[in-house]
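A quick aside before the break. I want you to see a complete sequence-to-structure record at least once, exactly as it would be stored in a machine-readable document. Don't worry about memorizing anything.
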Amino acid sequence: MKKIINDVENVEQEMIEGLVKSRPRKLEKLEAGNIVVRKERKQGKVALVSGGGSGHEPAHGGYVGRGMLDAAVAGPVFTSPTPDMVYEGIKAVATDAGVLCIVKNYTGDVMNFEMAVDMAKDDDIKADYVVVNDDVAVEDSSFTTGRRGVAGTILVHKIAGARAEEGGTLEEVKAVAEKVIANVRTMGMAIKPCTVPAAGKPGFELPEDEMEIGIGIHGEPGTHREHASRETPEGERDCKAAARQDSRRHRLQRQRGRRHRQRHGRDAAHGALYRQQFRPGLSQGEKCQSL
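That is the input. The structure line, written in tokens, reads:
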């Protein structure tokens, strides 16, 4: 796989700098590290902070904005940010209403965000966190205890962010986030392995004609592999053929209808006469009488 990278050592930092430069009026990067925050800070409303290892873009920096996240903390590729970095993110956007951290269920993320929340509380910042575990493919995988947190995290950002924007309390925003977590389920799949920049080669092997179902966002094994054939299955071909036949039949019916109207309805009076003549429910005598 070919990538455009200046220096593997700076890939995460340059990625964040590029994101901020793409929206200079909306975003800024903190000097403390690879932390993206909203330029327009909230006042009197709950702030949302999320993050995790880089390599899952646009998560999470791409979701910083009004009605979603107030800060996103990026660690190295596939590696959780440190508690100190998460704390810097919390501190930068904290309000009197509090801060809610949204954490994907990976051991390093949960541990480091939990420690950062404790650090914030020690500094009299009102803070709490929720853990997202939407993946139903596997349980207790390489980096987790329980189900993994994956794509469903974005829905938690959006819905909890909307409640925070409405002015909900920290407890209310957390309750909404937990309700979303309890109801969202996802499953991943892959058609190609990923390549971590520092490694320079794919993390696993996947034949061209196969896809892996239930794979994790770091390449953790899924439930099984399936043949990814480009041929259309027989049943699907039959359905498509039937749909084409129906479409052709309807097209011919419309064409016949147009020709019929052109022949019998050249003007409004003739058209009205035609409708009367062929009005349903009338006997032949009634039709003649109406004429």
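Two observations worth writing down. Residues 282-291 have pLDDT under 50 and may be disordered. The longest helix spans residues 234-264. We'll return to this after the break.
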